[in-house]
Amino acid sequence: MATVRAAALVRGHGRGASGAGDLAPDEDAFTLLVEAAERVLRPEAPSEVTAPVSVSVWGALPPGALEELPLALGVTSVAPRLEAGGVATFAERLAEPQPAAQLLLAVEASGSAAAVALLTGPAGEESGVEISGADGPEVFEAPGKWDSPVRLAWTLLQPPPPDGSRAVSLPGARLVLRARRLGPFAGEESWTNPSASPEGNVPGAVPVGEPDLSTVSEGAYLPAATYRENLPSRWRLEAAHCRKCGKLSFPARSACSSCGSMQELEPFPLPLRGGIIEAVTTVRPGAQPSEFDFQVQRGGAYDVLLVRLHPEVRVTLQLTGSGAASARIGDRVDTVLRRLYPMEGAWRYGRKAVPSGRSPS
User: Are 256 and 242 in contact (CB under 8 A)?
Assistant: First the structure.
């Protein structure tokens, strides 16, 4: 028996013919998975979350993304495993008693374009949802409903019916999962919001055209080595705190930007949510660096924001989607990992801003 201590469901933020839930042009399976995982690993009350000792992933990721996942999440001591077997192995893992915290991730980047993150731990904790597994002969009448870990998790972790529990039987697996609510848990709003259901538009996502990844940059060229040397800052907003003078440096450097010390630096995670906009600039078609030609062709003008994340730190972030009227000085924004632009045959990733309390669009 295991306990789901925190859970999050993230859908694609595009607006295609099938409505919300399609992949936006700056999204892929990697960004969906990271966004879901961040909601359970870096919630508003981080002291309540224990870092996972294992990470398991179901679903197809872009080339190299599995190896990059620990760096994106800040769990570099853990090597994630790509699981085979689909919904059956996901259900079995969910039902296993766990002596320590584990992170279960699943993603569908086509059709419903959704990702799920579950942080599980030992049974007996007075939070989350208790999951038990048992062999049984039951056969569910519509096998296609739970044909993916994302749909199965969404079904199990909705608020239970009046009798306080929910049972799901899996065809062919001879496994019955029973869920019982123990109390509130982080990320619950992601499950109770009807718009977060992955059932609404499967299949039918509108394909997102891809740019030519071999295109040579004509604008703000950034060599791959330079891009990669500070991914903790680019991907998860990690600053460096100097124990000698107490100042923060961002992006993190090998030496303190204030006193120059190289021996007294320690990682300092900046908040991913609740930054305050201090300036807004609208980049209109024709003014963008060539890296963003593909984005402008699809969405037109975009906003670039100066955001204060900490009394000592301001960052420059692009606003997700388009629409200059959606960001004003003084507004609060959250950040998400998104695709930025193609360069040297691959996508470059970084943080973008989204108005606080609203789904990216």
Answer: yes
The predicted model gives 194-211 an average pLDDT of 49
Query: Which of these, 289, 284, 287, lies nearest to 216 by C-alpha position?
Result: 289
pLDDT of 220 reads 65
Q: Spell out the domain ranges in the chain.
A: 2-196, 211-229+272-361, 238-269
State mean pLDDT over 29-45: 88
Nearest CA to 236 out of 70, 120, 361, 106 is that of: 70
Mean pLDDT for the stretch of residues 27-46: 86
Exposed/middle/buried for residue 277 (C-beta within 10 Å: 0-12, 13-18, 19+): buried
Distance CA 238, CA 292 (A): 25
Can you name the CATH fold of 2-196? Peroxisomal Thiolase; Chain A, domain 1 (3.40.47)
Q: With CA atoms as reference, report the closest residue to 320 among 111, 115, 27.
A: 27
Please say whether the beta carbons of 102 and 41 come within 8 A: no
- Token pair of 215 as six digits: 């295109």
Q: Check residue 164 and give its pLDDT.
A: 74
Q: For all residues of the chain together, what is the average pLDDT?
A: 81
